[in-house]
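User: I'm writing a tutorial on reading structure tokens. Could you give me a worked example: one chain, its sequence, then its tokens, then a sentence or two explaining what the tokens reveal?
Assistant: Sure. Here is the example chain.
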Amino acid sequence: MTLPSKQTLEREIKLRVKRNFTLPPCLGTPLPPRLLLSTYYDTEDYRLAAAGITLRRRIEARQGVWQLKIPRDAARLELEFSGGRLRPPESLTKLLFAHLRGQPLKQIARLRTRRRGLHMVGAEGPLADVVVDSVSALDGRRVLQHLYELEVELTGGSEKDLSQIEKVLREAGAQEGDHRPKVFQVLGLKLPVPVAQAPPEAPPVEHLKAMLQIEVQQLLAHDPGTRLGTDQEDLHQMRVATRRLRAYLRAAQPMLVPDWTSTIRSELAWLGSALGLVRDLDVLLGYLDRECATLDPSERRAFGRVLSVLQRERVEARAVLLQALESNRYLALLDRAAAAAHSPAVADAAVSLMDIARAEYKKLRRAMREYGPEAEDTVLHQIRIKVKRTRYAAELAEPSVGSPATRFIRQTMMLQDLLGEHQDAVVSEQRLRRLLGQVSGSVAALSLGRLIERQCERRRRVRAALPKAWAKLQKRAQKAWG
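And here are its predicted structure tokens:
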């Protein structure tokens, strides 16, 4: 995939101003005035807008560029691509594959923006750009609507700087603004609203639907970033959403139609496997890279060849993942997951989510009593899976059970992290031992040997900490499930 020519994480505030608003000159030095003509695109039913995404072709001084803005927590990631005048480049539309789902793009609005502003510099460098935009919505040459907006975008400052700048601007007459993108304001489009958990008194099925809808929303939110591949966190969060969807459906099996549940869980397992191949290598490479920094210089150079072997594996695994994400099978899964989240196939609506959570915990308790912290590595991995199942079942019951379930989940996460550290050490040791046969040189072999020993020590530390973590979880379980 061709990467964008420019990536910017926008951290900004928007304020409303009158047409004749004057920026306080003390804020900074004047920026050159700009004239921007932006043509916005979306599907007929505004699928991009429904995800908080904007796509436009912007022309300034007769030079055009395609810009894609994707929500990222409280900020937005802006990507720029070169391309033709009438249609975005393929590398851009591939990022929107899951949102477009075969629907064509069409022009939805044309905005002309006259921009003036100030550049702010602090003691340690650039702080922010403060600009006032005079926006005209166009239909050919006819002006349909005017919009006046003030934006403060950080160029190097902190969130504290942003708050202080906002205070000065409000004192100068700026007022609470509309947080939607300009094209949303012009067209009267709403920002997507995060799905909320069902109220405590809601029926069990409504709790399940809300939890499934939250994860479907998360999966789609991190899909473009996973395709882009510049931030590993997107892939991680997409994998987490996929796992949660599958786990919630498993936990809720007593209330669902078995064949319906197994089919969608099977497809989620396929997607999770493709995501997991890349994510596991990210975790391993990150750990080994940190450990490599502690080796002697000669060992570090030799170990670089070992890392290159794993990096090639990651490139291959990512190619497989992208192929999966560009398949009709993936689109069918997205449609099925969305349908499941809104209308699950219910067999018994009277099942208690608290009883489900209690039953999962009892399975975990039996396994711990039978095997305990001294269990073999493979058994501890199975116990870790039971811990995750226990946690996700508890998450389903949390809205109705309240704070005892919340505290139980928090302790379950701690135990899961411990067992995850153990499994990471097991996997790392296995990979390092296999790499011993793929590299040459005594120095590289020595560095691998040292890192293998560190994995053994990691496992010993986890096993020593397990009894205390398990004891705490049992106390939380007693208060949550009785």
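What the tokens reveal: DSSP finds 14 helices and eleven strands in the chain. The chain has two domains: 6-187, 204-481.
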